[in-house]
## 1
Amino acid sequence: MVADFVAGKSNGLEAVYRAYGRPLYSVARSVLANDEDAQDCVHDALVRIWQRPGSYRPERGALRSYLLVSVRNEALARRRNAARHAFIEERAAQPAGDASYELELNDPIERERLRRALAELPEEQKNALELAYFGQLTHVQVAQRLGVPLGTTKSRIAMALRKLNTALGPGKGTATS
Amino acid sequence: MGEDTDAGRHLGELAELYALGALEPLERAQVDAHAAGCAACMRALGVAESTVAALDEAFVPQVDPPQRLGSRIAAAAASAAVVSLAASRKRERAAWRVPSFYASAAAVLLTAGVAGGAFVEHAANVRQAAHDSAVLATIATSHFNHVTFTAHVPAAPVSKVLYARDGAWFYVVIAGSTCDCRVIARSATAQRDLGKPAVRGDAATLFVRDFPRPTSLELIDASGRDVSDATLVYSGT
């Protein structure tokens, strides 16, 4: 499936959509909060990647992760471009650790690992990560929100994500399909 | 760009920010450009992406996509398959002949004052033909204006943009195949990095439909330098 997709074959596109269409649409829907926009976003991002040989290379890591991040970035760009920041601000204003973010991870072991890793993050790293991920803010906006220098903000976000990766264990960051 | 190491300047923490969607468009473009030529940073991006994917799996409520999205994807795949088959048969019949739609492309673009010779090059990637057909059909059935980019540096490539009078689409054409430029579009309310135009023979092109009524376009080179720009004017504005 991955080879066919990378090679730009028609069956590769359809197979990838069958395998990952649900999580891709879910991510786009969660960012854009609109069915039509989410459909356009997934369609355009997926077809663009499929039509451009070399945009994804297997040595980068799992195709699923790459597509999820690509769709998330596309959705965020559309959202920001539409200048509809009010909703983002509202979400970002929620207090850190808000219980409305429900864990839905299917694997209970992994879910517990992630929950524990998030809880164990230093408060300043957790706040920065939450504003970036849940709040969907850019690092510049996170720095402004927290009132700390840009470099410090970038370090806190990156360090938080690296700790989560370590907590998730081997294989999570190196899968290739 | 990021951290200085013995191996040079790498992405460092930008990899995590990229995966989280926390970078501005220009920064994202710079990350893409760097990772394309740096295996270590590409792997770092992959690791960060896998962690964000785990967060997505954990926190994003899963929703079944509408049937229509699957149909659109299937249509895109089928369209490419049909074009691929047709192109294959056409090559078998008359490999030396210029495919008719490329000739049409040249005619349309020459009418608009653009050096469209690049379009008669036989495309190696036949999938692109489906995209080209749709682009040319759009151009052929639209009323459009065109404007030449104003160079800001001596090495700026000759470039032009065709754009629909109602602002529904625009088409950037850059003469020469060596331009390593990205296109930045701006409107009154938005700005977006649209990426690199696709090199087609002796020209590079980019057709955009999802950024309505841009007021200006800018070409930036790999170092982020402003190479040239164009102002788009619409009737009644």
## 2
Amino acid sequence: MSSRTTVASDEVVAQVAALVRNLVGEEGTWRGEIGPHTRLDGDLFLESVELAELGDALARHYGEHVDLTGYVAQLSIDEIIALTVADVAGYVAARSGA
Amino acid sequence: MSRFLVVSLPLAGHVNPIAAVARVLTGRGHEVAWAGSERFLRPLLGAGALIHPIPLRAHRGGQGELGMAAAKSRWEGYVVPHARYTLRAVDRAAADFEPDVMLVDQHAVAGALVAHKRGLTWASVAPTTMELTRPYRALPKVESWLLGLLDGLWADAGLPGRPPHDLRFSPHLLIAFTGSALTGELSWPQHTALVGPAIEPRPADAEFPWDWLDPARKHLLVTVGTLSMDQAENFYHRMTSALEPLGSKLQAIVIAPEYAIPDPSPHVLVRQRVPMLDLMPRLDAVVSHGGLNTVCEALAHGLPLVVAPIKGDQPINAAQVAAAGAGVRVRFARARPETLRDAVLAVLDDPSYRAAAEAVRASFRAAGGAPAAADLLEALALRTRAQVPALNLEVVHEGIA
């Protein structure tokens, strides 16, 4: 999305994708499909509870100032629908300097 | 005697609980009229109901999508066009019927607009929990998008300025068919009444094979609403795999078209419809997609649930069931057969789920159901007829902020 200028390194994208995979977890057939372009709402239909869990995991991994819930709260409905793993990684990179 | 005009949507899950309240009101000698489709409402309401007709029109929104896309589609593709399309007919119904009080479904915004336009007292009714807890309150831009749509409808209806409050919430009364044992402690708008489920009596089903039920085994009902072909094939396949090894322990009744589950195991009965309320007392647990009516009917019978939410208010209801300890939430689209089986066995074998469901049942009983809703509506109508000012809009607005 245009409003986000920070592009995360491949490593951060891979880490975020792994955290998302852990979250939706157990279900084998989905594991391989999660990549930078996977949309959290539009493809995975993550619910607010799950988004909060992902936020907790990101904060544990990258530090408390990574606040996914606060970040998503600033987005419009179309931005939330379009939000990808790469977008989240971009936000993480901007906040954590990773 | 008072007069009540109901404005809802042509969706059975919305109409049924309101119809239960209407039945109590007419039983007490009040007059109830409905503004809506004759063809849709008549079979649900019966021959005696008074209907101010609004022809059915298909709106494309709210069907296939999931997640936030479903919210966008529900409002932009359904709630808003439906409000626009029905506004004039609802207004005519109000002019003809001259109600003391309007009952307005939270998703039937035309009713709120007409009540404001005509200065009528009105009650909001929440047959789903979609708007009730304002699930987007933590997403300010989403909430303002939604309020912007209501602003647009207000202006299009020729009303001046902006709505004085969130039109999903009447300042006079909000009736919701759930209970605090399920929703948890939330800060409700003023004048909110959680009355518990309002359950309509339904006709008996002479064809249901009651003899099939083996008293030596436990009984599970699986009902996940109407699914698209893709969803159905996928979910029922996983569900039947989950149940496959449990035949010595349980029998499952699955509400689905017969073609969705070809060659079911002997311990699985597939029926297009079942006599739900007669069946409930024979069950030990329910697997549901989390529609509020099914969830509340199960809990009103003290039955624990496995909830696999798909969209709309279902994730909200699923989270509430899990938080109340009355069931297990699984992922509809992704749960593997092993996960589904573990969830079913948990609610059947761990008595804590049953105990929590029983606690919710007790709170529903205390909440009073349809008669309690009718009490509140009668009192509101009496206040209106006595022309006692009922509220302060500013205070109410703060109450839901």
